[in-house]
Amino acid sequence: MRSTLQDIAREAGVSSATVDRVLNNRAGVRNRTKEIVLETARRLGYIADSAVTFPAGAQVRLAFVLPAGTNTYIKNLHHQIEAQGATRPDLDVHVETIEGFNPDSLARALNDLHGRAEGVGVIALDHPTVREAIRGLSGAGIKVVTLASDILHVPRVTYIGIDNRAAGRLAGYLLGRFLGASGGRKVALFAGSLSYRGHEEREMGFRHILAEEFPNLEVVELREMKDDREKAFLEAANLLERHADLAGIYNIGAGNQGIARALKDRSLQGSVVFVGHELTEQNKALLLNGTLDAVIDQNPRVEAREALNILSNSIRGLPGEQHLPRLQVIFRENIPEV
Questions:
Q1: Residue at 119 is within a domain
Q2: Are residues 206 and 261 in the same domain?
Q3: HEC-encoded secondary structure of 286-321
Q4: Contact 186, 246 (CB under 8 A)
Q5: Which tens digit of pLDDT belongs to each residue from 271-308?
Q6: Which domain covers residue 180, as residue numbers?
Q7: Which residues lie across from 119 on neighbouring strands?
Q8: Does the pTM exceed 0.70?
């Protein structure tokens, strides 16, 4: 079914009247709003994409900007982008890492890509300077995809990643079922940074399902760790000192090893229900020894593949289907083979 003006308005975050003015080239709409509406209309298939046609045999230059640090999932995604890009003679792929929680540094890195890439993939902080940098790239004809954590109301081709709100609801459901519906129980949240929309959406989904289905669970604290294992350890150790009766932990981001160390120091592994994200080698070990009860996984190999395909097809003006990674819950008993 073809998309409608109302679909475009809803996705772009504007009124149907604004969409009508943009599509009919009438005055009274800011340039930034025009870019967002036109990109949304192209993405929904309402109008044809005006991508640049590349000469046969020419390489498409793709740049990816990822946060640095100890986040193993990000490192795996970095490796997959480079490894898969190396097998594609049609692509020239470059990955840059920056300090992960500084929006100004990220905006500068994005602005520096003008003239150096036809397509950009980014794990982006939802911040005005970053949004402006993405609008600048799009305005220069550079295609942009967001990875793992989305930014709304910017002219990007698409978001590639899991439904983070659904992931948070799933984590809340798991904790609720593990802990049961009787008696008041304390649980805590850890996040890398709520400046990532993905982390904010996970928190939102988690809190909503607890309110809907597990009102006996009380969120006593939310701590941000900047995806740093040592900070995660210190925050978790202090949390366990303050709440000796803590029943459960949901870690929205990275740093599971630090939280696990704090639990082991107090011999609480296996008695505090612990749910985290990403099936890394370290998290496999924590599942096997009973410290982690469940991991909500997404596949960096799939995300890398989709980012390369979607960007290159969009730049060349080629059609292409998007196959997003699915949420998967991993327990000790169903750890998949490599």
A1: yes
A2: yes
A3: HHHCCCCCEEEECCHHHHHHHHHHHHHHHHHCCCCC
A4: yes
A5: 999 999 999 999 999 999 999 999 999 889 999 999 99
A6: 164-297
A7: 62, 143
A8: yes
